[in-house]
């Protein structure tokens, strides 16, 4: 495989820039980050501090996160945007279909996953890497009960990532589930649906800085404690 692509490629996009800076990429100028500003013992406390500030700073849906997984033995990576729904001192929890989705196939063969948060309004990024575990049905039911009825019906009806023969097929599945739970307000969580906890081995906090000389600090798991290191941008 060639290390460099052919030079006669017709580039469809090259070094895009915003309207304010013309030909140059936008500079990050909204803050800086020093180790003295970090919680010395827990990346969970530090994340909660940043997340709370993001909510107060009108960051659009700060719970939005990119979940990346990889299938073995191929090593093929897949990523998708999901919502963070829970955080405690065990890890970061998202909810999804674990019966038919690509992420389900990936974590069946490879328990490692990553999360990436991007808060544009604050020029901040948080990266999480760790192994995953399924929540119990009892734990998942607690969150499932908070969803609107349509989303609970949808969780039962959708055969996530399977090929559809038109929108009508999906609507037929939804209709079948509506009939199944007609008149029932309490709907049980499907056995194939529920929470996934990413238990971090690494959490990185990234603050944008001018000239791409960003501030980066990683919490690295060492036994039962965490070590903080500064990384070169």
Automatic annotation (TrEMBL):
Cofactor names: FMN
Gene3D superfamilies associated with the record: Electron Transport, Fmn-binding Protein, Chain A (2.30.110.10)
E.C. code: 1.4.3.5
Pathway: Cofactor metabolism; pyridoxal 5'-phosphate salvage; pyridoxal 5'-phosphate from pyridoxine 5'-phosphate: step 1/1; Cofactor metabolism; pyridoxal 5'-phosphate salvage; pyridoxal 5'-phosphate from pyridoxamine 5'-phosphate: step 1/1
Matching Pfam families: PNP_phzG_C (PF10590), PNPOx_N (PF01243)
Pyridoxamine 5'-phosphate oxidase N-terminal domain residues: 55-172
Enzyme class at the top of the EC tree: oxidoreductase
Cross-referenced InterPro entries: Pyridox_Oxase (IPR000659), Pyridox_Oxase_CS (IPR019740), Pyridox_Oxase_N (IPR011576), Pyridoxamine_oxidase_dimer_C (IPR019576), Split_barrel_FMN-bd (IPR012349)
Any one GO MF annotation of this record: pyridoxamine phosphate oxidase activity
Domain of life: Eukaryota
Catalytic activities: pyridoxamine 5'-phosphate + O2 + H2O = pyridoxal 5'-phosphate + H2O2 + NH4(+); pyridoxine 5'-phosphate + O2 = pyridoxal 5'-phosphate + H2O2
Keywords: Flavoprotein, FMN, Oxidoreductase, Pyridoxine biosynthesis
Domain Pyridoxine 5'-phosphate oxidase dimerisation C-terminal: 193-233
GO biological process: pyridoxine biosynthetic process
Region of interest: Disordered: 1-23
HAMAP family, A to Z: PdxH (MF_01629)
Function per UniProt: Catalyzes the oxidation of either pyridoxine 5'-phosphate (PNP) or pyridoxamine 5'-phosphate (PMP) into pyridoxal 5'-phosphate (PLP).
PANTHER family: PYRIDOXINE-5'-PHOSPHATE OXIDASE, PYRIDOXINE-5-PHOSPHATE OXIDASE
Subunit organization: Homodimer.
Family: Belongs to the pyridoxamine 5'-phosphate oxidase family.
The protein's name in its UniProt record: pyridoxal 5'-phosphate synthase
């Amino acid at each position: 495989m060639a290390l460099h692509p052919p030079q006669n490629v017709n580039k469809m996009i090259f070094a895009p820039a915003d309207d304010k800076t013309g030909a140059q990429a936008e500079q990050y100028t909204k803050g800086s980050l020093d180790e003295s500003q970090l919680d010395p013992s827990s990346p969970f406390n530090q994340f909660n501090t940043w997340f709370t500030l993001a909510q107060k700073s009108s960051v659009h849906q700060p719970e939005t996160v990119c979940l990346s997984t990889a299938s073995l033995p191929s090593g093929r990576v897949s990523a998708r945007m999901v919502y963070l729904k829970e955080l405690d001192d065990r890890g970061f929890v998202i909810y999804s279909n674990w019966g038919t989705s690509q992420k389900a196939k990936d974590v069946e063969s490879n328990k490692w996953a990553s999360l990436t948060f991007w808060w544009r309004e604050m020029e901040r990024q948080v990266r999480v890497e760790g192994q995953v575990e399924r929540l119990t049905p009892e734990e998942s039911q607690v969150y499932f009960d908070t969803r609107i009825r349509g989303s609970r019906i949808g969780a039962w009806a959708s055969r996530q990532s399977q090929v559809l023969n038109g929108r009508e097929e999906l609507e037929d599945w939804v209709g079948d589930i509506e009939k199944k739970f007609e008149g029932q307000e309490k709907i049980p969580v499907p056995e194939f649906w529920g929470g996934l906890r990413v238990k971090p081995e690494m959490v990185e906090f990234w603050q944008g800085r001018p000239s791409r000389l960003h501030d980066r600090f990683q919490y690295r798991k060492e036994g039962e404690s965490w070590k903080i290191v500064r990384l070169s941008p």
